[in-house]
Structure formats: structure tokens, C-alpha cells
Amino acid sequence: MTTSTTTTTTTTTTMQATLGDAVDEEIAKRRAAVTEKMLDILGRLGPDGPTKPKHAQMFFKNIQFKATGGQQLTATCMFCDLGPIASTGASRLVHYLNNCSACPPIVKCSFQGMTNESQKKRKAKDEATKLAEEEAELARRKEKVRSYHVACQISCVKFK
Questions:
Q1: Residue 50: is the preceding peptide bond cis (ω within 30°)?
Q2: In angstroms, rounded to a whole number, what is the distance separating the alpha carbons of residues 144 and 139?
Q3: Fewest CB atoms within 10 Å of the CB: 58, 89, 90, 160?
Q4: How many whole angstroms separate alpha carbon 68 and alpha carbon 65?
């Protein structure tokens, strides 16, 4: 009876190893295909690589646009196969690629540079808006003081 149990266990282990090897082989084939497609895309983009957010769409598959309006799109990441990812523009796809754990560093780096650049522009715009608001507030205060002085001069009150 011990021999039968040992044989069954050995057979089960051998079958699991064979299935495991088949799964590993399938994963390796899929990774090779994704890598080949990624290199093809990077080759088509040229030496500068992705320079616009819309280039992120090239790294997604099953892209479908909403029937009405055509702005909303859904896509699946070619690296991790998670999806569908809904987006109203390519910037959300760039953000997804930057955070995707399966996305290769060569792709992430170019999109991270793009994200950093847009964050710098956004920060500069926010600072300019804040400065304009402060200047407007200062101008309002000066006008209020000036109108107060004019009102006092009309009523013949003198200031030192």
C-alpha cells in the first residue's frame, strides 16, 4: 500500500511539474511577444521615443472609443493585461503606464519625463495665478485706501 501511495504521489508531482513547465513556457512566449511588440513601437517612434501623451495609446490593446462623442476610450495594458482602463484622454494612460508594475523601465522613463515636465508647467501656472491674485488684492486695498482719502478730503479732514 505504501508503494501505491508513493507511485500516485510521484505521478501527481510529475504531472504538476509538466503543467508548471507548460505554463512557464507560455508565460515566456507571451513576454517575448510583448517585448518584440514594445521594441517595434519604440523603433517606429524614433530615437526621441514617446514625446506626446497620445503615444501612450500605442502601448495598449483593445482600444475602443465610445460611440457618441468619441472621447471616452477603454483599453487594456499590453504589459499587465489589466483592463479595461477608461480614459477621456491619453494623459490618464500615461499615468497608468508610470504606475504599472509590469511596464519596462525603458518605457516608464520616457513617460515619467513627460509627466515631470507637465507637473513643472502646472506648478508654474499655479504660481503665476497665485501671484496675479495677490497683486489684484493689493490693488483693491490701495484703491480702497485712495477712495477713503478722497472721501475724507471732500469732507475737509486733513491727514498728516
A1: no
A2: 9
A3: 160
A4: 9
Cell numbers for 34: 510583448
Task: Specify which residues 74 forms β-bridges with.
Answer: 64, 86
E-assigned strand segments in the chain: 60-65, 73-77, 85-87
Candidates 83, 40, 28; CA nearest to 61 is: 83
Comparing CA positions, the residue from 73, 56, 55, 53 lying closest to residue 64 is 73
What residue ranges of the chain have pLDDT lower than 50? none
- Nearest-angstrom CA–CA distance, 109 and 9: 48
pTM of the predicted protein model = 0.58
Give the pLDDT of residue 140: 95
Grid coordinates given for 93: 494612460
Q: Three cell numbers at 85?
A: 482602463
How much is the pLDDT for 158?
Answer: 60
Q: Which three cell numbers stand for residue 96?
A: 497608468
Spatial strand order in the sheet of 60-65: 60-65, 73-77, 85-87
Amino acid 13: pLDDT: 57
Residue in the structure block whose three cell numbers are 500516485? 8
